[in-house]
Structures are given as structure tokens and as C-alpha cells.
Amino acid sequence: MGKRKRIPEEARREQILGAAFDVACRAGIGRLTVRAVAAEAGVSHALVLFHFGRKERLVHDLLDWVLDITSVLHISEDVARFPRARDRFHALLEQEVTRQSHQPEHTRLFLEYWALGTQHEEIRTRIAAELERYREAFRGIMADLIGEDPLLFPGATADGLSAVAVSWIQGCAVQALVAPDRFDTDTYLAALRGMMGRPGGEAGHHVETS
Amino acid sequence: MGKRKRIPEEARREQILGAAFDVACRAGIGRLTVRAVAAEAGVSHALVLFHFGRKERLVHDLLDWVLDITSVLHISEDVARFPRARDRFHALLEQEVTRQSHQPEHTRLFLEYWALGTQHEEIRTRIAAELERYREAFRGIMADLIGEDPLLFPGATADGLSAVAVSWIQGCAVQALVAPDRFDTDTYLAALRGMMGRPGGEAGHHVETS
DNA sequence: GTGGCTATTGACCAAACGGTCAATTTAAGA
DNA sequence: TCTTAAATTGACCGTTTGGTCAATAGCCAC
User: Fold this and answer.
1) pTM
2) How many domains is chain A built from?
3) How do residues A42-70 score in pLDDT, each as one tens digit?
4) Which residues of chain B have pLDDT under 50?
5) At what angle do helices A34-41 and A45-52 cross, to 10 degrees?
6) Window B54-73, strand D contacts by Cβ < 7 Å
7) What number of H helices and E strands is found in chain A?
8) Is A2 within a domain?
């Protein structure tokens, strides 16, 4: 056991945060302890506190780390290339629903952070900022959508529609997490398409993805 | 401090569960301790364990208790009296969105229970059952809705639509909890109405509530 | 009253927690 | 090589946790 401090500060933080992520996914943030993280990283628990000061900061930095690596709501080329806003929206929605269904662990983590946010100011503002970023990405597409066909959603604003879009994804994530066997992603997406798919005068179109 | 066991078993459980609810709302389930509950109820912490055995069972029974007193998704007379399924759906949706916005504490609690459900089998099945009950209530209205106008949501099933409806409410609850100042219930409901409000041939109708 | 049953309590316990600290090891600079 | 600053550790501490248990206080039948 002669190996020690080779690792240059930044990499150590990364290593510990990765271990913290594993522990949080396995046991939840509620049961995340400094000692468990240290054991997962293969270091002493004093070292974790040396690099992060308090446990509270470790948890907070873990939130930042997860949000960074998750690269939430990145509008890919596949989405942006659609000329019509409706198709872009469908593609983005399908992308996000599919992505979250492939990362169920993240949903659990975010659930706990959302709950924590009601008490810790720092966490709440961080989450609120991310939520705002998330909604903002939809807002542009929604504004285009209303612009293309003002009669499509009478009385609805881009703000309202983007909030609804976020609800779709959040609600899908939660239901898939709580009762995976009772929740079918395809059926869900089909319902969303049917709900959005009233063309202003055209018919028989559909979004191609893959 | 001479007062003791007057309370007849059932009432004691109720009293303790009420105290547990207050503690859970104030500090979260993560920080709920047997001693904190006992202090809130004004009894010794040994008595709490005498009535509930383990802390785990206290937390589980609290979930049942909360779900009972919340009377989730009760289809009121005001909703049922609408002859058209579309109006019933709008009314029910508005009722649920409004109700949850008046009980933000419950949302936080359920968030934590959802996260806990990923690890505790008992909690997960209990939540899944409640979610199923919730979706079931929407499914009937959704089936009627499709029956009234099969072309309204092409390709969508009652199952898919009810899942979407649940998403609306869950997503609304989460967003209102995470960033209350950035979330406007009226704008959200207006967007939902605009999204659902494509009459098959009629126009200018709206749902009256209150 | 009085005896017995049970709800209730305070004291106690082992474990785990977050956090501190002096002591050691390591890498790098002189 | 010697020095120096930083990284790392094991030992330790005070607190809190869930849980147990013998003792006790209240209530009912008699």
C-alpha cells in the first residue's frame, strides 16, 4: 500500500465525484456517506473531506458534475436539420424521451435533488437554472411552431407550451421509473404524436427518426 | 409529567403518524428520525418503536396514511356532470392542477417516496398501485374522448393518453415545486387547453369551472 | 382496595456518522 | 541530496442514530 498522492488534484476530484455518483446511484443521496464514497474510490474518508471540505459541498458538486456529464437537452444536428418546427419538436421530444429511458438512474438522482432543493438554497438555484435552460431550448421551437400555424394551439403561449413539453418528459421519466412494467414508451410517444399531429391542412405526414 | 397511556392504541398511531407527517414535511423523509417524530408527538421515542416496530415500517405506514388523507384524484360531482368527455377531461385536469398547487408539501413528500421506491419493494408496489389508480381514473374519460371523436388524436390509445395526462399533472407539480416563481399555473393551463381544444367541428366552447 | 395486564418511559447500547488533527509519505525545487 | 510544501492517512472525538430492556405508571376486572 505504498501508492499515494500521484494524482494531481483535478483528477482526484474527478475520481471521487465518479465514486460519489456510483454510490448515489446505488444507494441514493440519502444514504450517501463520506465513508462510502471514500471506500468506492479506494481512498481514506479523510481525503474526501480534504478535497471537498464538508459533505454538503460534495453533494452540491456532485449535482454540478452530473448535470455536466449528462449534457441535458443538447439539440443535435438530427433535430436541427428539420425545416419545419413541428418536425423539430417531434424529433427533440422523441430524443429526450428515448434518452431518459436509457438512463433511469439519472432520473432517480434528479428526483432526490429536486426534493433536496426545497431546503438547500444552493441546490434549488442550480436546479432552477437547469430547468430554465431546459425550458428555454423548447421555447424557441415552440415560438416557431406558433408562428407556422397560429391557429394550431389557440390561446397558448410559447412559455406555456414549453412548460408542457417539459412536463411530458418529466412525467414520462417519473412514470417509467415508478412502474417500468406498466409504462410503454412507444404508446406514450404515439399519444404525444397524435396529440400534436393535427396538421393545419396537410395530412399523412410523420416524423422520421433513427 | 404524570400523564400516560390514556390513548387507545388506534388514536396513538394516528397521533404519531400525524407528527411524522409534520416532520416529513418540515425536514423531509431523509431527515425523519424516530426521535424527531416522538418529540413532535410529545412522547418518548421508545413508544414510537413500540407501536411501529421498526422505523422502516413507520415510513411505510406514513405513505399509506398520506395517500389516504390526500384522497388522490377523486372525481367530483362538478367534473362528472359534464355530458361531453372533453369537458370532463378539462375539468378534471384543472381540478388536479389546482389541487396540487395548493398542496406543495405533498409534492415534495411524493418525490422522496418515488425515489425511495426504487430500492424498497413495499414502497414501490404501493406507489405503483396508486399510480395505476390515478391513470385508471383518466383512462375512462380518455376512452370516451376517443369515442366521441376518433379523429381527434390519430394513433393514440386510451392508455397512452392517460399516461400523458398524468405527465401533465406530475410535470406541473414538479416544475411548480422546483421553480415556483418561474412557473405560472394559468399559462400552463391555457397551453393545455389550446393543445386539447381542437373541436371536431364546433368552435368557441370553453370549460367553466368554480 | 388489589392484582394483573399493557402502554409508557428513561437508561442504555453498539454502530455509524461528519469532522478534526498530528503524523507520515510523496513529488518537486533548490 | 536536502528542503519544503502539499497530499494522504489512521486514529480519535462528540454526536446522533435505530433499537433493546427492565422498570414503572395507569387502567380495568374483581
Assistant:
1) 0.89
2) 2
3) 999 999 999 999 999 999 999 999 998 87
4) 1-2, 199-210
5) 110
6) 54-56
7) 10, 0
8) no
